[in-house]
Amino acid sequence: MKNRTLKTERIIKNSAHLQKLIQSSHDQQQIFLKIKELLEPQLAAHCISTHYSGQSLKLFTDSSVWASRFRFQSKSLLKKLYDNHIPVHKLDVKVIPESRPPEPRKHPARRISEQAAQSLIDTADSIDDEKLQAAMRKLANSALKK
C-alpha cells in the first residue's frame, strides 16, 4: 500500500497539469470559505458551494427559497466581496436540491374489486371514444390480474 502511495505522489509531483488542478481546487476552496465568512449565518448554512471564474461567481444553494434570499441580497454581497478583494461583476445563484430517497407510502395502494373491474368493462363497451375505452379496459384488466 505504501508503494502505491509513493507512486501516486510521484505522478502528482511530476504532472504540471495535476499540480495546476490541485492549485485551482485549493484556490476555489479558499474563496468558498471566504464567501461563507462574509455571509450572514443563516445564508452561510445554505451555501453549498461556489465557483469563481474571472469576475463571475456561481453560488450554489440547497433550495429555491434560499436562492431567492441570495438573489435579494446580491448587491450587498457583491459590495462585501469587492471590499474583500474578490472582484465580482456577475453573480449567478443555482439550486442543487438535496437528493433523498422517496418516502414509503403511508397506506398500501387500494385495489379495485372484481365487481368494479367488471363495471369498468361494461362502461367501456358503451363508450365511442376508442382511447378512453382502451384505457378503461386496461385498468380493469390490471385489476383482474392481481
Task: Write the CATH architecture name of the largest domain.
Answer: 2-Layer Sandwich
Count, helices: 7
Distance between the termini: 56 Å
Structural class call reads alpha+beta
Would you report the number of β strands?
A: 3
- Major beta sheet, specifics? 3 strands, mixed
Radius of gyration: 29 Å
Oligomer: single chain
Q: Could you state the order of secondary-structure elements as H and E?
A: HHHEEHHEHH
The first-level CATH class of the largest domain is given as: Alpha Beta
CATH topology annotation of the largest domain: GMP Synthetase, Chain A, domain 3
Explain the overall architecture.
It is elongated and about 75 Å long. It is an alpha+beta fold and about 150 residues long. Helix 6 runs antiparallel to helix 7. The longest helix has 23 residues, at about 15-40. It has a 3-stranded mixed β-sheet. The protein has 2 domains: about 1-95, 2-Layer Sandwich (GMP Synthetase, Chain A, domain 3), CATH 3.30.300; about 115-145, no CATH class. The protein starts with a helix and ends with a helix. It is about 60% helix and about 15% strand.
